[in-house]
Amino acid sequence: MSDIDQSEAKQVLSKLSILLKNGFLSKEQVLGVLEETVPQSSKDHSPRTKINLQKILYYIGGFIVLLGITIYFYQFWDSMDQVSKAILTLGSSVSSYALGYYFFSFSKSRDFGHAFLVISAALFPLGIGTTLDTIGISATRSGGVSVNSAVLFMIFFVSYSVLKAAIFLPFSIIAASTLFFSFTNFLFGGSVLIPHFYEYRFLILGATYILFGYYFFQTNRRFMTNLLYVSGLLMFLGAGMSLQGFFPRSDIFWQLFYPFLLVLTFWGSIKLQSKAFLIMATIFTFGEILKLTAEYFSNSIGWPVSLIFAGLIIMGVGYLSFELNKRFIKKLD
Amino acid sequence: MLSREKLPLVVGIVLPLLLILYVAVTAYLPSLFIKPKYNFIYSNDNYYDYSINVVNGKVNIQPNYRYDNSVVRQPALYLYDVVNDKSTLISLSQAQNYTLDPSNKSLDGFTVGSRVNDSYSYFPFFFSGNDRGIYLTGNGLNRVITERDYYYFKFVGWILNE
After folding, report:
1. Quick check: A197 pLDDT over 90?
2. How close A217 comes to chain B (CA, Å)?
3. Is B59 helix (H, G, I), strand (E, B) or coil?
4. Positive or negative CA dihedral for A202, B4, B17, A164?
5. Domain limits, chain B
6. N- or C-end of chain B: fewer Cβ atoms within 10 A?
């Protein structure tokens, strides 16, 4: 390296350190750039593989611990009074959170801490729910579920923001989604009758997940993207399909509009370069073909002939989907 | 200033809030101005042992079997006050002071019963839109009457002489 290169490198490093200090850049962003530029051969032999195996073992261990705690609760549940139940469930969630926090704060035991944090995240709903029951708020009614979800969302989101533990991000989204459903049930469930309110809420929540997925795609939390795309499209296209109804009680607007949603999803797969979009669009197109066949053709031309036609169309859609992937998505991956 | 990168995040958060606002404005607020006129009488226990009928506009309770050794409690009757949204336990003689209409629908277009499930079973996550409880519904109103013992609920009749 020449002297000029050396001084330029020093300048870049000092700028980088200033940006990091002032919070304009995060450590993950820098690591992301490094990861992209490191040659493939050196990547393959990185310690990441080891850590992943270690992580898997931690999570398996964590799952077994969780299973043990659940069986333990189940065995003594009926014989315990309400206060003991609350102390036991909330106590075990808080203590596993404390352990997770402790181990997570050391870089060497970070993955181990992660496993305990996951256990605590799984136990908190039970702990808070039992506590609510103890203080006289029914944990299974929409009001109680709303309070439970709101508290969970606060715990998970604050943990995600403070600890920067990525595991709390999906948990925060799940808690917020539960809050959306339970709070709307609490607000409107006992006062107004809105036809297909569940479906419309799933439709909206699905769109929200897809938008969140796109947001995370642009940031350094890309691991969330496919998870959000798949669950979002499942809700969005599932709700759309459900809103069509069944013949003879089908909704003509949704029956005409739904194919456009499917085409939009195929278009989205190319635009976003997303296989999750392509797979979900293909699966729901298959579903729509089978649904329409069952509704309109099985009685007139009979089931066997309907199935032959449906099968041929599904093969055609499958081929188109495969071609889309090959020409527009795979090439750019 | 909202950055282009954060726009999907903001829109994603705003969408569910807009839905809540839309439902509140188009369905919830109008329901506050819907005023049912007719109170009604219902029972919510033990109608297997007794038949509760309205004969010539008066409530009539008859045992289904003859009991020799045991005394079976008569089903309790409740008067639901539609203005104050309140149920009051009343005796059979009190109930017989009222002239009742046993029709499913009141004269002003309301019905009482468990809520209809409008969701489909194949919906993702096997979600069901069925809510527990007995509701007073009609003209856009969906008011919960009782969530206790809803399984045994029996509507008796709308009160016509108040």
Report:
1. no
2. 10
3. strand
4. positive
5. 1-33, 36-65+73-159
6. N
